[in-house]
Design a protein that fits this description.
Structural class: alpha+beta
Radius of gyration: 15 Å
Shape: globular
């Protein structure tokens, strides 16, 4: 039986460093949630923050920036569901996240999220703003849950 627990940024970051397949911990966050097993061992964390894309940072949209588990059954979907419930309780109208285009999104679907579109991916590095890419650069699937009725055509085009 899984149980949700609060988690500090420091503890979540340590867990993500040790377990996540292709990302380091996020730079910051609004909140995080952990999930523990019957033995009270942490088996996953979710980090929620502002949308990374400035086009989506409208004050009412949150973003799951990391969902990291050890593979325990239902842990990822439990965390996605909890992230949405917490964000909604805080006044957010919707929450989004991205998966690699090679990932099926099973946990997101199980938590009631829907596929919104495709992002082409790419590098954050630009001639005017050099970055060292340490993340996968391929296409991503954009997922969301909540109220998307007022998302403008610009949001759809910037996915």
């Amino acid at each position: 039986m899984l149980q949700l627990k609060p988690v500090s940024f420091s503890d979540a970051s340590t867990y993500i460093k040790e377990v996540h397949r292709h990302h380091k911990p996020p730079q910051g966050w609004k909140f995080g949630i952990s999930v523990v097993n019957e033995e009270e061992e942490m088996v996953g964390v979710v980090a929620v923050g502002r949308p990374v894309s400035r086009h989506r940072d409208d004050g009412i949209t949150a973003e799951v920036t990391r969902n990291c588990t050890d593979g325990s059954k239902n842990a990822a979907s439990c965390l996605y569901g909890a992230a949405w419930r917490a964000a909604k309780a805080m006044g957010y109208r919707r929450i989004i996240t991205y998966t690699l285009d090679s990932e099926p999104g099973t946990s997101l679907r199980a938590a009631g999220w829907r596929r919104l579109g495709v992002s082409l991916g790419g590098s954050w590095s630009k001639p005017s703003r050099k970055r060292t890419d340490k993340h996968p650069l391929g296409g991503k699937i954009v997922w969301g849950i909540g109220d998307f009725a007022d998302w403008t055509q610009q949001h759809a085009q910037n996915i």
